[in-house]
Amino acid sequence: MISDRYNYQTGAVGVASIASIGFGLAALPAGVENDWINDDEGYERALGTLETMAGLQRTHGFYYHFLNMSNGGRAGYTEVSIIDTALFICGAITAGEYFGGDVKLLADEIAAGVEWDWYYNDAQQVFYMGYSPESGFSGAWNMYAEQLMVYILAAGSIDHKVGKEAYDRMKSLATRKSYGTSGVFYNTPAGTLFTYQFAHAWFDSGSMLDADGYDWFDNSRRASIAAYEYAVAASQAYKTLSSVSWGLTASDGPDGYKGNYGNLPSNGGNYIDGTLAPCGAIGSIVFTPELVIPAIQHYASIPALQGRYGFRDAYNLGVTETALPAVRRPVAPIPETGWFNTDVIGIDKGITVLMIENYRSGLIWHYFMQNEAVRRGLAELGFTVKP
């Protein structure tokens, strides 16, 4: 399994994250193709991971969000997660298509066992957001966010299909706004950039349009432009932000993890205190490479941002001399040399690896999109190849 986080100072690893495991499985083909590992090593790791996951407790096919690294059991009172299960399934499918053999057989078997219809609210035509054995279902995916792959996987299921009505309902409930020169696009509640990236690490949205002719790749491109322009505007108050340091996304900060570090436009839920995660911009490299590559070069020029697994998860250089007193600051003091996170987070590394590889070769897209269930799901939703 793969841990949710790793601490550079202590070497401590956290609990396992099923989303991190999904990203890790999808990264194995990139490892083989770049000669970081050989094919046998990749196959063995993929098969061993899937054998472990196949033997764990599941609830109607869904996994707990966080797992104990030593025995695979539920970590604390974590929820049975639809979105994190979907991220894991996407990674499993990618590894299965790439390695074939028993890896594919097991990946397809695990994917087929997910009961999407159980996690679905028929009356409201939306998926629930969470489930706990102690309290039942809660929340609803009644907006556009990172869950696009859920509709594809659910529509492609043979025994537990949830069809196009759920996808159409999501679009009808979603809001559309713009910021700066971005143009109008479907925005997410907090405008955090990962919500425009995670599904697109697997779904080759650049090659397809939905039944209404909507272009989700262009949607993420517009969101990336908005994030860039928002950071440039906010650079008057925050030293961290600039034209080469942008892309607010969920990450650790001086005051702890915040899932709503985000950009405009949003529905009023975005949070900004000068903290920036490099993975935010990097995850948009397929959408706006002309804006992302200079940012990568900038991050690479900051010695304190470098670590064993590439860039540290996030950093904060404090406010500018001209920042007004009302500008939000972290409660924790920022050192003169800046705050640099001691942890690295698995899903942030995951989106970094997958999107760079997609930009270089389209590798992850290629193998995910050839899966039979994925093709069924896209056909059910009415997606067609761009002319």
Q: Number of folding domains?
A: 1
The CATH top-level class label: Mainly Alpha
- Outline type: globular
Low-confidence stretches: none
Which structural class is indicated by helix and strand composition?
alpha+beta
By DSSP, the count of extended strands is 17
Write down the secondary-structure element order: EEHHEEHHEEEEHHEEEHHHEEEEEHHHE
CATH homologous superfamily annotation: Glycoside hydrolase 144 (GH144)
Distance between the termini: 41 Å
Indicate the mean pLDDT. Answer: 97
Summarize the structure.
The protein contains 12 helices and 17 strands. It is α+β, with helices and mostly antiparallel strands and 387 residues long.
Describe this entry's structure for a reader:
This protein is α+β, with helices and mostly antiparallel strands and 387 residues long. It has a single domain, classed as Glycosyltransferase, CATH 1.50.10. It has helices at 18-33, 39-54, 82-99, 101-112, 148-156, 164-173, 216-234, 278-282, 289-300, 346-361, 363-369, 372-381, and strands spanning 5-7, 16-17, 66-67, 80-81, 120-121, 126-127, 130-132, 136-138, 175-177, 185-187, 208-209, 306-307, 310-311, 315-316, 339-340, 343-345, 384-385. The chain has a three-stranded antiparallel beta sheet. It has a two-stranded antiparallel ribbon with strand order 1-16. A two-stranded antiparallel ribbon has the order 2-3. A hairpin with a 4-residue loop joins strand 5 (120-121) and strand 6. Helix 2 (39-54) packs antiparallel against helix 3 and helix 5 (148-156) packs across helix 12 (372-381). The longest helix is centred in the middle third of the chain and has 19 residues, at 216-234. It is globular and about 60 Å long. The mean pLDDT is 97.
